Amino acid sequence: MCGVLATREDEQAVNLNAQFVLAHDTLAGLFLKSNQINLAEHHARKALRLLPSDQAALYHLIQALRRSDDKKELPDSIKRIGDLCRESREKEALQNRYKIFEVEPGPK
User: Fold this and answer.
1) For the chain, give me the number of helices (H) and strands (E)?
2) In which band, very low, low, confident or very high, does the pLDDT at 57 lie, cut at 50, 70 and 90?
3) Fewest C-beta in 10 Å: which of 37, 45, 84, 96?
4) What does the alpha-carbon distance between residue 34 and residue 4 come to, in Å, rounded to a whole number?
5) Rounded to an integer, what distance in angstroms lies between the CA atom of residue 5 and that of residue 83?
6) Does residue 103 belong to any structural domain of this protein?
7) Residue 71: exposed, middle, or buried by beta-carbon count in 10 A (0-12, 13-18, 19+)?
8) Is residue 105 domain-resident?
């Protein structure tokens, strides 16, 4: 019952704002869990059109493609998620490379 309510609320969010990537991501995941593969694939693709670097959407798309009959896209999608993960790690490493700390002087 909770999943049905979440699905309704996410569908309402998408209806109110079709550009709401998080709602598309959530719907893709919920539809995967309920074995509605076509709907999961649709929402994952919609999220990826809105935000091409969305790893969650790409993961949901890969899961939907694995369960579907059409596996032509699967190798490229798997490579793409690997690239996105690598880029994300590199970006995080650059952001964390330099940190400025203020040290209070000790007693004299």
Assistant:
1) 5, 0
2) very high
3) 96
4) 10
5) 35
6) no
7) exposed
8) no
**Cβ-contact 33, 3 below 8 angstroms:** yes
Q: What is the pLDDT of residues 79-104, one digit of tens each?
A: 998 998 898 888 888 777 776 777 88
**pLDDT bracket for residue 15 (50, 70, 90):** low
Residue type, 66: R
pTM of the model: 0.69
CB burial class (10 A; 0-12, 13-18, 19+) of residue 2? exposed
Distance CA 28, CA 39 (A): 7
In a domain, residue 11? The reply is: yes
Q: Note whether 87 and 77 are within 8 A (CB).
A: no
- Angle at CA 11, nearest 5°, toward 5 and 13? 105
CATH of residue 69:
1.25.40.10
